[in-house]
Amino acid sequence: MADSTAEAVDLFKRTEPGVMNLKERMIKYAWIFLLIVFSGACGQEPPSSDLPSEDTRKKGTIVAMGNSLTEGLGVPEEMAYPAQLEEALRARGLSYRVVNAGISGETSSGARSRLEWVLSMEPDIIILETGANDGMRGLAPGLIRENIQYMINEIIARDVVVMLAGMKIMPNLGPAYAAAFADLYSTIAAENNLIFMPFLLDGVAGEPALNHFDGIHPTAEGYKKIVENMVPYVLKAIERRNTSDGR
Length: 247
What we know:
Elements: H1 4-13, H2 22-42, E1 58-66, H3 68-71, H4 81-91, E2 94-102, H5 108-113, H6 115-119, E3 125-128, H7 132-136, H8 141-157, E4 161-165, H9 175-192, E5 195-197, H10 220-244
Helix pairs in contact: 1-2, 4-10, 8-9
């Protein structure tokens, strides 16, 4: 049986944010909820034979929440970082399912508005990447920080581990704005004792061979580099999760 959470994510992505009225959004969320519940009742497919044995694997769900940088704009879904991260963890004997919950064009306010839906997946870990679109629009760093802090509070209240991915922007809006934007991530991470990846695109941003022609969105090779950088932070998140719930 196909993974219903992936179906739910796909269903959510089919309509651009802001196009639906409230009634339509309520109906859509109801269908997503039913898909998830139905899957829980029917069970899951057996693991592939190329995975480590049941007794040596750790199991769990990681939700990668973000914008087009998480969704993988311009590459097949299996080449975006969530899918590549899942494979990297499997290679280490860790059977964590990584759900791609990226939505192109989303701001931190949009992420905040759908947080409850993400939490309904009952993840063990959430990788939170948000704010780049806010920065490109010159939105106030205070608003971005408020939205991220709200999400962190809600996530931690559900006993879910947060891994925050920091972002940086070009100094088009002035060096003061760019500095304030970058600093908000490290400040939030320190104040909340989060596992913090300082810059999601470290080693990728500004590298033509690792980005599409827009110079913003990574290619498959760019996402490979992101995963190489990300794995140590994710392993720390898994360790924290295992410690917190006694596994």
